[in-house]
Amino acid sequence: MTLRSVDAKQMESLRKMIPEDRFSTGDSVLNLHSRDQSFHPPSRPDVVIWPILKEEVCAVLKYADENRIPVTGWGSGTSMEGNPIPVKGGIVLDFSRMNRILQIREQDFQADLEPGVIYQDLNERLRHKGLFFPPDPGARATIGGMIGNNASGTRTVKYGSTRDYVLRLTMALASGELIETGTRASKTSSGYDLVRLFVGSEGTLGLVVEATVRLAGVPSEYGAAVVTFPSLNAAGKCVFEIKRSGLDPAALELMDPECIGLMNREKGLGLSVLPTLFMEYHGPSSHQLAETIKVVKEICVDTGCTGFNAGFGRGERDRLFRARHELGEMILRNHPGCGVLVVDVAVPATAYPDMIAAVKEEMKKGGVTGYIFSHAGDGNLHVNLVGKREDQDGWRRIHTVADRTVAGALASGGTATGEHGVGIGKRKFMEAEHGKSLRWMKKIKTLFDPNGILNPGKMFPYNDDFLQLTR
Ligand SMILES: Cc1cc2nc3c(=O)[nH]c(=O)nc-3n(C[C@H](O)[C@H](O)[C@H](O)COP(=O)(O)OP(=O)(O)OC[C@H]3O[C@@H](n4cnc5c(N)ncnc54)[C@H](O)[C@@H]3O)c2cc1C
């Protein structure tokens, strides 16, 4: 059963389903939907459709399934692993115009959303209600894309990832069938948890057309600290001690001196160019927060910090974290003509300091330029490895560093991807990470999408042989 690109007759049939202003085969539109924010090569779809109704999504899926045409969901295209790149062409369903906040139920701490809602826009609407949606991947991501990738962010260490906030989903399946799954209750023991299965499935099992998400109360008080260390290893050990102390940081981000140098240059932060932790704590009162920061300082001093700066106002704290969020873009700006491979391993807390030391060593051995900045509180290590696009030998060395880092993470009981998803780049590690259970994942895929039309070429290592392998 081979997937096919859209032929002229099929294009006409699709055109009849969707108004002209939400249907495009124009070059610039196809190019825009051919790449995400990763180094993976672009691949154009045949057509881009912007649905605004669930029924339109279902009709397109039904037609595509009957005609074996690939369909890939698209949010904002900010993925870091090629997740929304339509590697087999076909149809891209861009959800950016299906972006209504349908209902906010303040008293239930819930919101009903269409998939194209941008999470920052949701938080802007929630600001005056004293509520927020905590997962914060930084880029202007959509709820559908965040659900697709199970996105996380700087606050995940305290609040959890997207998966922890999805209560209910309306999914359009490959056949065009619409199902609702989950509950508005805050807990349930009823049946298989399909919501958790769909979250993180990268649009390979179905497409989100509506979601009910949980919201959190905005904390009364915020406290931030910037702490420097003589080595990354010492900073890593401090992360471990803070976690062990039960202090419950709301952000615990690690940056190497190279990152701090970039941030100083671009944002004029004037920070000491040393391994640095950005921390944030949330609390009900300034008194309680002051106590917390006092204990944090003691731990930092005990683990050998060289500088401890707390007591930032809200504006300064926002400036620091905004700079942290923009690091990925700063790295690209400062390396014109280069591509970036982002290592995204996550490991148990005890393995974290050794993981940092190992990746530094690998970079040194391979002569590879890299920037370490991490959601350290989650044991999630990001290393942005930089190489000139045309330097084949350089890219071979970059891949060696990345592969060895993933192998080390898996050996310590960790994962190849903490938050960016499998996409294209992490497929090769799936067998090593999941062993026999990968075969069961394939069976699930076949059950939901027997013709393999949904985001083909992703998630599984041998996607092209996928149907033979699973039948
Ligand atoms: C500067 C920068 C910083 C980032 N920082 C972080 C970070 O801290 N943490 C983090 O987790 N990520 C981070 N990311 C990665 C990215 O922003 C997130 O993965 C985000 O969730 C992607 O959302 P999107 O709307 O761009 O989705 P897209 O990239 O468009 O799509 C993501 C996946 O979801 C699928 N999809 C899209 N819409 C739907 C739908 N309606 N139903 C089902 N599947 C769908 C796509 O097919 C694709 O597989 C960062 C990216 C950038 C550029």
Topology readout:
Elements: H1 8-17, E1 23-24, H2 27-32, E2 47-49, H3 54-67, E3 71-74, E4 91-94, E5 101-105, E6 110-113, H4 119-126, E7 131-132, H5 143-149, H6 156-159, E8 166-172, E9 178-182, H7 194-198, E10 207-214, E11 216-217, E12 221-228, H8 232-244, E13 251-255, H9 257-267, E14 276-283, H10 286-302, E15 307-310, H11 314-325, H12 327-333, E16 338-346, H13 352-366, E17 369-374, E18 380-388, H14 392-411, H15 430-434, H16 437-448, H17 466-470
Parallel strand pairs: 2-4, 3-4
Antiparallel strand pairs: 1-2, 5-6, 6-10, 7-11, 8-9, 8-10, 12-14, 12-15, 13-14, 13-17, 16-18, 17-18
Query: Class of the largest domain, according to the CATH hierarchy?
Result: Alpha Beta
Helical stretch count? 17
Strand order of the largest sheet: 15-12-14-13-17-18-16
Average of per-residue pLDDT values: 94
Question: Residue share in helices?
Answer: 25-40%
CATH topology of the largest domain: Uridine Diphospho-n-acetylenolpyruvylglucosamine Reductase, domain 3
Q: Span between N and C termini?
A: 12 Å
Q: Please state the oligomeric state of the protein chains shown.
A: single chain
Description of the structure:
With 471 residues, this protein is α+β, with helices and mostly antiparallel strands. The chain folds into five domains: 8-96, Uridine Diphospho-n-acetylenolpyruvylglucosamine Reductase, domain 2 (2-Layer Sandwich); 99-217, Uridine Diphospho-n-acetylenolpyruvylglucosamine Reductase, domain 3; 221-327, Alpha-Beta Plaits (2-Layer Sandwich), CATH 3.30.70; 335-422, Alpha-Beta Plaits (2-Layer Sandwich); 428-470, no CATH class. 36% of the residues lie in helices and 20% in strands. It is built from 17 helices and 18 strands. Strands 15-12-14-13-17-18-16 form a seven-stranded antiparallel sheet, sandwiched between helices. The protein has a five-stranded antiparallel sheet with strand order 5-6-10-8-9. It has a four-stranded mixed sheet with strand order 1-2-4-3, covered by helices on one side. The radius of gyration is 22 Å and the shape is globular. The chain starts with 7 loop residues before the first helix and ends with a helix. The relative contact order is 0.12.
